[in-house]
Amino acid sequence: SPTDSPVTLKILQNWVPKVSHYFDKEHYTYAGHQIVIQESIEHFGAVVWPGALALSQYLESNQERFNLKDKKVLEIGAGTGLVSIVACILGAYVTATDLPEVLENLSFNISKNTRDMNIHKPEVRKLVWGEGLNEDFPLSTYCYDFILATDVVYHHTALEPLLATMAYFCQPGTVLLWANKFRFSTDYEFLEKVCNIFDTTILAEFPESNVKLLKATMRKN
For residues 214 and 18, is the Cβ–Cβ distance under 8 A? Predict the structure, then answer.
């Protein structure tokens, strides 16, 4: 059926050019709200990558298919927080997680962009992939409808812990939405591992940006 083939999309330049005295602020509009993101040049996680734009755009345009209203959403590797902010605007209970050194900028962006809205207030928490998952996020208490991940795969050594983290949180009924720019053979190797563990569908491809958006769910035995 036609729904099985991925949509081909363009990443829309959804940012609003503004004269800014700071080189590090980007303005975006999603779901009718202007979002101002402060980037940080010190950290990888503090720049808006193309996968984040792709997933934000997809969530905004596919609210019937993936209705986030009142759903529990966990973002891993949240970076600047753009995707978490969009998920909040769309009505989700969001927990945005990343490494300790990224949390200050992440918290700043999230609180700045959600404070005056009548939405569920997002939570920002430390999550180091593969570490302390049972202690910090025991499955008896923490179950999520959606796990969001964007541009979490690039040249780094944490791919095994990342896969373990995805597998840990992807319980029955959880949907993992992962958008990534595919640049290196290691990216494709990781994709293969994801396909081996999960039932995986490519929802959308953004050929100009080499971004793929995938949906993964726990494989039914």
Answer: no
Q: What would the pLDDT profile of 195-207 be if each residue is shown by its tens digit? A: 999 999 999 999 9
DSSP string, 64-88: TTS--TT-EEEEES-TTSHHHHHHH
pLDDT tens for 29-38 read 888 888 888 8
Nearest-angstrom CA–CA distance, 50 and 38:
16
User: Which two tokens mark 32?
Assistant: 């009718």
Write the class of the CATH domain 43-216: alpha beta
Q: What confidence tens digit (pLDDT) does each residue in 38-75 have?
A: 887 666 555 778 999 999 999 999 999 999 999 999 99
Quote the pTM value: 0.90
Note whether 79 and 104 are within 8 A (CB): no
Q: Could you give the C-alpha distances from 216 to 80, 83, 117, in angstroms and in order?
A: 24, 18, 31
Kindly list the domain boundaries of the chain, sorted by start residue: 43-216
Q: Which residues contact 156 (CB under 8 A, 6 or more apart)?
A: none
Tell me the two tokens of residue 219: 């494989």
